[in-house]
């Protein structure tokens, strides 16, 4: 699976959009981009995933560049409960088993 | 409610005393896995199971055993715990197809003294 690079930390004001970048320059054609988050020692939580089109669900939006070498997770209206470590993970297509290779992630702190 | 349940949430034990951490899922998922999380090392996979009676080693299997006799349960066994197994443990499950993401348990914080 391709390796990802994320900033170690970022702050965001409550109510504002949080834009979390991720670089995955070695991503291959059959690899998807997944985002998880972990709220202080709780189990990681799936947020969203995508291949090349932008995706949106009730939690967030995922923007993937046309060359697929980077992506941005957008939390449209950050709340204090969004304070967590966010992991960007690249792995092969959904219908296959496999472990998740977690990196260090980005510690996001949402402030009042 | 669809969930992965781990027990216990917290456990303090002594070196060499066998213990089992249980994991159960109610989503009829084929795939189950155990991870440990340590400061500076992130989440690392210990063992995984693709279905009943099918298990295999992950990245850090030494000192651990697992079994998958039923689809819903995937216990983690420490036959002779040592202090270096002090960690936060997570169980996860996912379906084999239509994969949208792994569901993780709430974690078990184990301390071996």
Topology order of chain B in helix (H) and strand (E) letters: EEEEEEEEEEE
Overall mean pLDDT of chain B stands at 94
Low-confidence stretches of chain A: none
Strand content of chain B: over 45%
Sketch the major β-sheet of chain B.
7 strands, mixed
Radius of gyration over C-alpha positions of chain B, nearest whole angstrom? 13 Å
**Rg of chain A computed from alpha carbons, rounded to a whole number of angstroms:** 13 Å
Short descriptors:
heterodimer, A: mainly beta, 9 strands, 0% helix, 46% strand, globular, B: 113 residues, 7-stranded mixed β-sheet, 4-stranded antiparallel β-sheet, 50% strand
Short synopsis of the structure:
The complex is a heterodimer of chains A (112) and B (113). Chain A is mostly beta strands and 112 residues long.
Textual characterization of the structure:
The complex is a heterodimer of chains A (112) and B (113). Chain A is built from no helices and 9 strands. Chain A is mainly beta. In chain A, strands 1-9-8-3-4 form a 5-stranded mixed sheet, with no helix packed on it. Chain A has a 4-stranded antiparallel sheet with strand order 2-7-6-5, with no helix packed on it. In chain A, a hairpin with a 5-residue loop joins strand 6 (61-64) and strand 7 (70-75). The termini of chain A are far apart. The N and C termini of chain B lie far apart (36 Å). Chain B is mainly β. Chain B has strands at residues 4-7, 10-13, 19-25, 31-38, 42-51, 54-57, 65-66, 76-78, 87-94, 103-104, 108-112. The A-B interface holds A 34, 36, 41-46, 49, 94-97, 99-100, 102-105 and B 4, 30-31, 33, 42-43, 45, 48, 50, 58-59, 88, 90, 92, 94, 96-107, 109.
């Amino acid at each position: 699976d391709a390796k990802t690079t994320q900033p170690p930390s970022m702050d965001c004001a409550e109510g504002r959009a949080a834009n979390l970048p991720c670089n995955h320059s070695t991503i291959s054609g059959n690899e998807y981009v997944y985002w998880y988050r972990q709220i202080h020692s709780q189990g990681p939580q799936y947020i969203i995933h995508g291949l090349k089109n932008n995706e949106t669900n009730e939690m967030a939006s995922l923007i993937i560049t046309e060359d697929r070498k980077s992506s941005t997770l957008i939390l449209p209206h950050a709340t204090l409960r969004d304070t967590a470590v966010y992991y960007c993970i690249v792995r092969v297509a959904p219908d296959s088993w496999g472990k998740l290779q977690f990196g260090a992630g980005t510690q996001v702190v949402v402030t009042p | 409610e669809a969930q992965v349940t781990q027990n216990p949430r917290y456990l303090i034990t002594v070196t060499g005393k066998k213990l089992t951490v249980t994991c159960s899922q109610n989503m009829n998922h084929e795939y189950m896995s155990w991870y440990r999380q340590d400061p500076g090392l992130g989440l690392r996979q210990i063992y995984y199971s693709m279905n009943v009676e099918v298990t295999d080693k992950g990245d850090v299997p030494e000192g651990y055993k697992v079994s998958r006799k039923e689809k819903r349960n995937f216990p983690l066994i420490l036959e002779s715990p040592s202090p270096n197994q002090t960690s936060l443990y997570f169980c996860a499950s996912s379906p084999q197809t239509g994969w949208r993401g792994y569901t993780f348990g709430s974690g078990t914080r184990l301390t071996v003294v």
